[in-house]
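W.,

You were right to be curious about this one. When I first looked at the sequence I had no strong expectations either way, so I just let the prediction run and decided to look at it fresh. Below is the sequence, 74 residues in total, followed by the output.
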Amino acid sequence: MNKVFLLPLVLAMLFMYLIDRKSLSAAPAVNRWISRVLYVISIGIWIYGTSTKSSVYVATWLSRFIDMWLPPAL
């Protein structure tokens, strides 16, 4: 795992969470959980992206997942 790249990204995510903490606490419960889940997913993506040596990236998986809901191309 390339910890040199992982540490600044995790610190940036923690900083973003600390900044958004007030607005998250004022949000409805559903929005709070969705935001927290997205934070955890993004940290997982960063960890995967910096620890893997393969050429398959998470963005490729996400684009295939999003393509299921998009209408067919004209």
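Here's what jumped out at me. Residues 13 and 40 are 10 Å apart (CA to CA). And, maybe more interesting for your project: The radius of gyration is 16 Å.

Coffee later to discuss?

I.
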